[in-house]
Amino acid sequence: MHRLLYKDIVERALTEDLGSEDCTTGSVFSGEEGKAVIVAKESGVLAGLPVAEEVFAQVNRQISFLTAFQDGDIINTGDCVASLEGPIAAILMGERVALNFLQRMSGIATATRAAVEIIRGTRARITDTRKTTPGLRILEKYAVRTGGGVNHRFNLADMVLIKDNHIRGAGSIREAVARVRRCCGFPVKIEVETETLDEVKEAVACGVDIIMLDNMTTSQMDEAVNLIDGRALVEASGGISRERLTEVAATGVDLISLGYLTNKSRALDLSLKLY
Amino acid sequence: MHRLLYKDIVERALTEDLGSEDCTTGSVFSGEEGKAVIVAKESGVLAGLPVAEEVFAQVNRQISFLTAFQDGDIINTGDCVASLEGPIAAILMGERVALNFLQRMSGIATATRAAVEIIRGTRARITDTRKTTPGLRILEKYAVRTGGGVNHRFNLADMVLIKDNHIRGAGSIREAVARVRRCCGFPVKIEVETETLDEVKEAVACGVDIIMLDNMTTSQMDEAVNLIDGRALVEASGGISRERLTEVAATGVDLISLGYLTNKSRALDLSLKLY
Amino acid sequence: MHRLLYKDIVERALTEDLGSEDCTTGSVFSGEEGKAVIVAKESGVLAGLPVAEEVFAQVNRQISFLTAFQDGDIINTGDCVASLEGPIAAILMGERVALNFLQRMSGIATATRAAVEIIRGTRARITDTRKTTPGLRILEKYAVRTGGGVNHRFNLADMVLIKDNHIRGAGSIREAVARVRRCCGFPVKIEVETETLDEVKEAVACGVDIIMLDNMTTSQMDEAVNLIDGRALVEASGGISRERLTEVAATGVDLISLGYLTNKSRALDLSLKLY
Amino acid sequence: MHRLLYKDIVERALTEDLGSEDCTTGSVFSGEEGKAVIVAKESGVLAGLPVAEEVFAQVNRQISFLTAFQDGDIINTGDCVASLEGPIAAILMGERVALNFLQRMSGIATATRAAVEIIRGTRARITDTRKTTPGLRILEKYAVRTGGGVNHRFNLADMVLIKDNHIRGAGSIREAVARVRRCCGFPVKIEVETETLDEVKEAVACGVDIIMLDNMTTSQMDEAVNLIDGRALVEASGGISRERLTEVAATGVDLISLGYLTNKSRALDLSLKLY
Amino acid sequence: MHRLLYKDIVERALTEDLGSEDCTTGSVFSGEEGKAVIVAKESGVLAGLPVAEEVFAQVNRQISFLTAFQDGDIINTGDCVASLEGPIAAILMGERVALNFLQRMSGIATATRAAVEIIRGTRARITDTRKTTPGLRILEKYAVRTGGGVNHRFNLADMVLIKDNHIRGAGSIREAVARVRRCCGFPVKIEVETETLDEVKEAVACGVDIIMLDNMTTSQMDEAVNLIDGRALVEASGGISRERLTEVAATGVDLISLGYLTNKSRALDLSLKLY
Amino acid sequence: MHRLLYKDIVERALTEDLGSEDCTTGSVFSGEEGKAVIVAKESGVLAGLPVAEEVFAQVNRQISFLTAFQDGDIINTGDCVASLEGPIAAILMGERVALNFLQRMSGIATATRAAVEIIRGTRARITDTRKTTPGLRILEKYAVRTGGGVNHRFNLADMVLIKDNHIRGAGSIREAVARVRRCCGFPVKIEVETETLDEVKEAVACGVDIIMLDNMTTSQMDEAVNLIDGRALVEASGGISRERLTEVAATGVDLISLGYLTNKSRALDLSLKLY
Lengths: 275, 275, 275, 275, 275, 275
Fold this sequence. Notes:
six-stranded parallel β-sheet; alpha/beta; homohexamer; Aldehyde Oxidoreductase, domain 3; 11 helices; 43% helix
């Protein structure tokens, strides 16, 4: 993930948290140097180290940021995730913002890894959705990759996804696909959302790249996978809970998209300690 | 919440989601008008209607946005949260972004209300922390208020909060408070974080406005409240779970701050349907 | 093309041209209303009307902008492309900026249409490249579509394009494709740039979506198309001049990408006249 | 040209081209260092080296950028315009954007130099217009200077230019000039656009600084120059083609403004090669 | 002054003043409509009405803003400068920001007018300097014009001003002017700063447009004006106080530049009252 | 004051002053190195050194900026405030902008210090208002602190200030305070503006934190201070001139707010000299 993609996000977060000045720290400290560590208070998958490093770099170039980990590593309670050295006032000013990024991103990576582990050994891969935090999609999709998932489209232009509303608007899957083929560029793949086996058949007949099985029962999915028979990638979607992952993966789908990775994620517990 | 505070957040979210163009919707629709509703798929407290309305207004001024609810209202499964009318392509383009805001904010309001209900009848009020999503603090703090909570400080300049690191840096609570009084403006209140009853006593002796009881047991909190005896506001803090709220409130503290409201929130389930 | 995609581009262009104030017009006029027309001084394909309209709307909401044309229409010398009515000073202030957009975009659309006409009747479609004006890609790709072309990828994330440097870096096409398949999301298609028939064979064997024939002779292209035999889209690329379009299209390639559409485009001659 | 004038233009160009990430290069390379050269594929005048250098600096500070040339130098086919060393992935990420700037600017400088050469030995100088690419005027005017031209005004505030529409609005050249003298600051020069010899006479009588001869025949220009007789600078303007430059310069005009330098420029052919 | 030139300045001022929300007004009012007037508490020259109007428009489109005055009018103590009607909370939110602009700009216009009156009847005009408030030059220069002054250059590119440091750098006025003529465009006028009569003579010999007499005594100015004898505009400059204006103007200089207009201006006293 | 708080202000000021290029300096100099000093031309309190340093750093990283002073120091006529070394063209380009910041901020600090000296020995402290220059509040409040004053609230969210319009809107001070207590967060202090002794009594009865005595006579202030008797901080406000400071401070008020510090400030005279 290139720094150009998050440096402005970091700057906005810092100015949001700073207000007109950190008067507490500014009153107490005046140039003292010190050391600090970021410590894991629970285990999980780490994500966001370059973002946390950017936070401290923007606060003060004199803070050194060292870590023995890299994004994607598993950390355990008590692990020293990173160590910092530099002006104490600057470290404290960056603390909350750096942790807010690191905890949120690690939380998403951890949830993703958990799902990936559950379905290990099947052909299925875990993917994400557009149900991300406004303004932070780039970071949240990166966290999903870091946790072992594979990204679905980033935005409305990345891929065609023909949903129920489009199908109804066009009159049929066939007509919707035809319109899309007339208008959209060759670089974009076409996915169709289906809710019934008839729709699945129609989508297969149109030769689309990916077929989404939306809110289907496991046995419907079984049938759909058989029907499609490798002629398109198959994505299971629609409120699939962690508990249902095993049986969904067993149907032979290629992709399972999980909105909860990003819209019900819980921050991984980390804290910063001066010493 | 004034529109100046979120219009740029909304614009960034829309351009993030749009990419270079919504080719699916642009291929299928060409100016057809339609109607849609935002429907609750679970019950909770609604927050973010003006933000959702701003989303659709930025997409296309011709979309009308009507609602019988206002922020803070309780909604139930199946409720029509809002109805929209206008160009279908524009409604679909705003759908995901509007829901991302509305679901996240309503999730926070709902979690806040749940906590508020648990401690109803006590003197305690629920408050938030700086553990918010980078860039969205203004919206998340608003959601906490909407859910019946009261906001803690917005940023580092709003209030003095002397934490363990400051106390260690200054040598004592007394010295830290003295330094802060020399440097900070009279408009800011002073809060001190305490971990022991001795620290509580020292804070009381300094005449600070608010005393935070950090990671204390319930019986320590009991003692601390007695010790302080109304001479300062008392805030209970430090990983307080929902389960512990009742007993913490029973100690007589004035404020209970909950990081989980914003950093472990789950989006409230809402969806948009064309009809 | 959604207004969110160009409104900031228009605002930057207006402030660039305005400097600290238009003192000529401001001295001569003081509120007089008037009418103006934008007239074609040569024939071509019109592109950019909504952008020109946005220019005048940003200058002064009281300017009305009317046109009997839409983007993609052919215009001829003398045609009245649009008529304006409103405060004269505002019309003159928007004149140059509106024309700069409209002329540039129409120039690109016109060049695209010319290429499309040459190969009409073949299976080939005209596509563009990333050789666009920095900051204006969204408008220039739109102009290519308006002229009848189909857009290649918008940016580095839209699609995988494995070029000679990547192949050399990975050691072989096979290895490069393998690495890409491990890292990139399923939504992106994979294209490989080839310079020899052996590379074409290797690319076909890898099952990529699109194969680019870079700087090949026409007879090499013939062979390549036969070799590929419909198992991938075929793109002819590499300094293909207008003169060579017919013979390249005759080889049966699916796409012909032309850098000159955007980096050697000449503005279509238009002017604004008050009357 | 100060870096403050183009650093944001470069950043917008990079984010435009990057999208959500360069997945091709990111998959294939992982930190390898390498070398590359930018090679001239045709001869011309180089312009834009500091902008290209800024592109690579923004991508990655570790890329070194060395060149034996400076802007304004003539380069020939095969010349190594610049050499780069650093992380290969970063070099490839900056490649297209750097070339887009360098090719466009060099194209303009080359066209300017060609015009300058044609009229060498006459008193005339080549100047530009406001027919520039929206958002890139600062770079394109710089390229004109680099090619040996002299810049006309940058924006509407820089100078007064009384055009036909202003003359008609005021009723006469005399009245327009009077109004301008009342309102505009003393720092701005006054130019009047004339279409007939009578207008030329009126402009001379008003004592303006520069008189533009718009769309005049060569013999009209001859007469006008005689009439003006050194009492104002004389600018020839209006669709003057390259072919007509010699005879226009021979009339003794001081300036020849050429819109085609910027709105019909063709990019100079350059490419980047890893080795 | 076009709205594009100040709308972002106004938005920054409003967000600066708003912080995270106006909690006082938000607590007390909830939608009540009301009326208010802006009243003059001292007499002076009004400047900034469109900027004040923009402030209220950005706060809430439903506020009507009416005035019987226009910029440049003289107002007296007790005059109702403007009347407002709309939501009270919105009026109060805009109050301070609108007054801050209006008072500052009117203060500058008033000081300018005072200087203009003192020298009325002489050939001299009052002009300004670059000693303006960072970020507000466009507004302050406008206020100078509104007060009857004429603007000096807006920025470093507008005009050449050869100062003592440039003369020393080049070796002589002659050499400095020669270098400038080689490099700068014909649209910019050339001014030279002189401190002695010898320098004045050299500047006249170079044929520059404007000669600045810097920190000269009145009798030196007399001599300089005689020496120059209409061959260039003459600007008196250098800490000229209000008291010295009459005698400086009597020397026959064309321009008197006054830094104090913008860097020692006092806000004109205005207040807003609800009724 | 953290650099994040002013770096964008500095960049806007530089681009405002630069326009399209400094052609004078660019013509005369070409890379020569030199030295310069910033010299005090009158005595006062220095404020803004880090801002001036940031100006030169943004112009050219190669300029060194050295000073023996720090903000808050008293400087006297002739003092060398700072010395610079680096490319002459860059130093001259930063000169005016750096001085504009430094002079304005030092002017405010000087005026503040003068007021502080007058009331030395009393319990009163000097504070500021929201009557600051739009967009520069952060710098002007910093200058007040530098001069020995204490900052009043930064923005509308920082503190509750119940003014006459709020009291009238709510019906009484009591009701206004009650509404504010229901809606606003516990972190904000509450101040009430009073104009009569009855209002003072009512405010005391409400237990607010700070009571403002607005436009009262000195004897009214005496009475009010007695009435309040330490139960709230007391702020004297309302057009208090320098002449009246002594008698106001003698009443025993805690704070005296002075709008003139920021809205009638005069720049401290400084200049930059090359040598």
